[in-house]
Design brief:
Blueprint (H helix, E strand, L loop, with lengths): L14 E4 L7 E2 L13 E3 L3 E6 L5 E7 L4 E2 L7 E4 L3 E6 L6 E6 L4 E5 L14 E3 L6 E6 L6 E6 L4 E5 L4 E6 L6 E6 L5 E6 L3 E6 L4 E7 L8 E4 L5 E7 L5 E7 L8 E4 L7 E6 L4 E6 L5 E7 L4 E8 L7 E4 L11 E8 L3 E8 L15 E2 L7 H5 L8 E2 L16 H14 L4 H42 L1
Parallel strand pairs: 2-6
Antiparallel strand pairs: 1-30, 2-30, 3-4, 4-5, 5-7, 8-9, 9-10, 10-11, 12-13, 13-14, 14-15, 16-17, 17-18, 18-19, 20-21, 21-22, 22-23, 24-25, 25-26, 26-27, 28-29, 29-30, 31-32
Keywords: Actin-binding, Coiled coil, Phosphoprotein, Repeat, WD repeat
Protein name: Coronin
InterPro entries: Coronin (IPR015505), DUF1899 (IPR015048), WD40/YVTN_repeat-like_dom_sf (IPR015943), WD40_repeat_CS (IPR019775), WD40_repeat_dom_sf (IPR036322), WD40_rpt (IPR001680)
């Protein structure tokens, strides 16, 4: 009989533990009922963001992480959008700055008061205008300060300088709805999964599609996440026969995935989260109660299933805590925030250890929450990897000031003032007279713009085939 060997891994026995309800969870939340495919929850070392259900507009709440238990009925929120909020993202270099996107075609930047909201805030620090359709995704740059990407139903991904509201780059090439976006390790590239069943990698500064290949062939939602510094991309999606799948692509040989694995035949979209320090991939399915986690070994290019966290309660969304905020005294390697129908539950993933000493073999240097580049340096062509620090001494959030370029904001406001009536009465009259005409023009232009992009994408495919 041939001897059997057990693969050596420090993370083979990682286990997940859910927080005790209701004392250590966040209860009494009116979660958004939007059908848009988004995680609904985002988290940073200080705050938790949840998209809320709001009649007649769009809102989201930001709750301090220490404020667990039953939340108040009239939870203070950011409610400046005129339609449902679809996505939010925290600035990785300033824990008190958050971006939101909405069905009202706008991206807004908000400043969170220290200690959390005490009352509703309706006016953002700055509003980013330019998309013609609802904006489904926002994602901050992992290296450069104050750089934000937004993906919209107008089939564009726009890169912004949030200090002055200027659009720096517009990425085109997708012929259907963009389902997810993810930055590369140094932020020079950005990948997207799309309803046209293509996986694309954009060169951000040139605005061109650098790579493109076929993705999952099912009609349901697909997600993509860059696998840290490995030049690999993990995707989740569905096969033609509705099997849920995980693919891993090597950007150095982008034609076909190096790993293809079928998971099951459930119907919920799979949400992937990757930890670059441990090389672990966490997979949470919408409507599932479990969270699977895998370890990727680059030398053998294998994705090994480790275990799964099991629960009878289905999840509507999931948030991933930045690694710098994990509890090293409990050898915590990851913490996910599971969204229930009216609550958020932290789930801690730990490595079992008997010693109380710092596990230096588990915790490698990780991102420290400081920008390696300014916005100007990034768009001038400079590249840099994220700045790292050691978790042994612990992480203390540092408050950074955020300021808007007042001159640029004033110029934008002046341009808008020239187009807008000067009194409330004039505004109402102009609104009644021009609303119908404006909506018709917008609809016509947008439809033609989308058709042009679809034809351009088809033409490009024909040229590639030749």
């Amino acid at each position: 009989m041939a001897p059997s060997f057990v693969r050596s891994s420090k993370f083979r026995h990682v286990f997940g533990t859910g927080a005790k309800r209701p004392d250590n969870t966040y209860e009494n939340i009116k979660v958004s009922g939007s059908a848009w495919d988004t995680n609904l929850v985002k988290v940073n070392p200080k705050y938790l963001s949840i998209n809320l259900e709001a009649g007649g507009g769009g809102s989201f709440a930001v709750v301090p992480l220490e404020r667990t238990g039953k939340l108040q009925d009239n939870l203070p929120c950011f409610n400046g959008h005129s339609a449902a909020v679809l996505d939010t993202d925290f600035n990785p270099f300033n824990d008190n700055i958050i971006a939101s996107s909405s069905e009202d075609c706008k991206v807004m930047i908000w400043s969170i008061p220290e200690g959390g909201l005490k009352e509703n805030i309706t006016t953002p620090v700055i509003s980013l205008n330019g998309h013609d359709r609802k904006v489904g995704h926002v994602l901050f740059h992992p290296v450069a300060d104050n750089v934000l990407a937004s993906a919209s139903g107008d089939l564009t991904i726009r890169i912004w300088d949030i200090t002055n509201g200027s659009e720096k780059v517009q990425l085109t090439g997708c012929s259907e709805i963009i389902q997810s976006i993810s930055w590369s390790y140094n932020g020079s590239l950005l990948c997207s999964s799309c309803r046209d069943k293509k996986l694309r990698v954009f060169d951000v500064r040139s605005g061109k599609v650098a790579m493109e290949t076929s993705g999952h062939q099912g009609v349901k939602g697909s997600r993509a996440v860059w696998m840290g510094d490995l030049d690999k991309i993990a995707t989740t999606g569905f096969s033609r026969t509705s099997d849920r799948q995980i693919f891993v692509y090597d950007t150095k040989n982008f034609g076909t995935p190096i790993i293809q694995e079928n998971i099951d035949t459930s119907s919920g979209v799979l949400m992937p989260f990757y930890d670059n320090d441990t090389k672990m991939l966490y997979i949470a399915g919408k409507g599932d109660g479990n969270i699977r986690y895998y370890e990727y070994v680059d030398d053998s290019q294998q994705l090994y299933f480790l275990s799964e966290f099991k629960s009878s309660d289905p999840q509507r969304g999931m948030g991933y805590l930045p690694k710098r905020a994990v509890n090293t005294s409990e050898v915590e390697v990851a913490r996910l925030y599971k969204l229930h129908s009216n609550a958020v539950e932290p789930i801690s993933f730990r490595v079992p250890r008997k010693s109380d000493n710092f596990a230096s073999d588990i915790y490698t240097d990780t991102c420290d929450g400081k920008p390696a580049l300014t916005c100007e340096e990034f768009f001038s062509g400079k590249d840099a990897n994220p700045l790292l620090f050691n978790l042994k001494d612990g992480f203390v959030p540092v408050k950074r000031e955020f300021s808007v370029d007042n001159a640029a904001a004033a110029a934008t406001l002046a341009q808008n003032d020239e187009k807008m009536p000067t009194s409330e009465k004039e505004l109402k009259e102009a609104y009644k007279e021009m609303k119908k005409e404006i909506e018709q023009l917008k609809s016509t232009i947008t439809q033609k713009d989308i058709k042009i992009r679809q034809l351009e994408a088809q033409l490009e495919q024909m040229n590639i085939a030749k």
